[in-house]
Every structure is written in C-alpha cells, then in structure tokens.
Amino acid sequence: MSKVIGLTGGIASGKSTVSELLTAFGFKVVDADTAAREAVAKGTPGIEKVREVFGD
Fold it and tell me: Is residue 5 part of a domain?
C-alpha cells in the first residue's frame, strides 16, 4: 500500500532541499508549483480557460 505525504512550509524553509533528498532516496516527488506553472503555460488549454474566466 502506498502512502502520500504532503510537504508544506514557508518561503525558504527547505522544502526543495527535502524534496531533493526524498528523490535521492528513491521516493516519487510531485512539485505542485511546477505542475501549476505547466497547467497554465503559454498556449495551453489551462491558460486559455483562465483568460476566458478572468480576461487578459
């Protein structure tokens, strides 16, 4: 059975460092900031929906 662990913290609290260590130990890491940027990247359906709802 897999477990999901959330890693949270303020700016410059070490989240990226801990994520790198977890990756080095073989854990799967999903970076929500990266996923969010990719979801609304230029030319994606995500950014088009944002524009549709909120305008340019």
Answer: no
